[in-house]
Design brief:
- By secondary structure, this protein is of the alpha/beta class.
- Helix content is 36%, strand content 23%.
- The protein has 9 helices and 10 strands.
- It has helices at 57-64, 87-93, 109-119, 125-138, 154-166, 184-199, 211-217, 235-240, 245-255; strands at residues 19-28, 31-41, 46-50, 72-77, 80-81, 94-97, 172-176, 204-207, 220-225, 228-233.
- The longest helix is centred in the C-terminal third of the chain and has 16 residues, at 184-199.
Amino acid sequence: MTTTTIPGSPTNGSGPPVLAIRDLHKSFGKLEVLKGISLEMREGQVSVLIGASGSGKSTLMRCVNRLETPTQGTVRFRDTEIGPANLTRVRREIGFVFQRFNLFPHLTALENVTLAPRCVLGAPAEQAEREARELLEQVHLSAKADNYPAELSGGQQQRVAIARALALRPALLMFDEPTSALDPELVGEVLEVMRDLAAEGRTMLIATHEMGFAREVASHVMFLHLGQILEEGPPDQIFESPREARTREFLARVLGP
């Protein structure tokens, strides 16, 4: 079992982790998908999960906010172990951006972003709308505030989903392969917004197949293989001199000669 403390943040080494996972296992029937994952993240760090489809990246992320219930192990957010008693409160502080956008089709972009602050935080309608418009501007969609999801491209819908995740002012942002459902020409506009968030110092856990993006924004990269963290380290080490043969094989396949 490997425990990871991600370097690169000025707060590294002081104070409790934002996220601490210990010996996490997840099985679906006889299929063991996660086999003892342990890691830590501190404020302002960007941790990126890479690996082949089926390696456990999405399952790991879904276990963090209990969209899946771990078979074994613990997940702590700040100083609290996540469980049924505090799940609602914890989810307010962990923003999750899915592969599929999961927007409410009957609500405009603006309404999708204002919904959680009004219903979860109890924000007044005027305040929620003002802040939602600021977030839509941040993701370069202020002109699309009154459009419905069906009137937006996939990239635009995903940027609305990012604005929606930001609306609860989360301490941790998680992205589960946020560009995997997009046409190639739409990927860049979503990655641009995510680069901006990383530059702001947001604490982010990202599962992605975009290797150039991972190398650019990550504080720490973890290569998952068959439900385990096979190799981890700073992006330069992982992408330039990986130690494990399986890591080298994976990168050669996805990056090409």
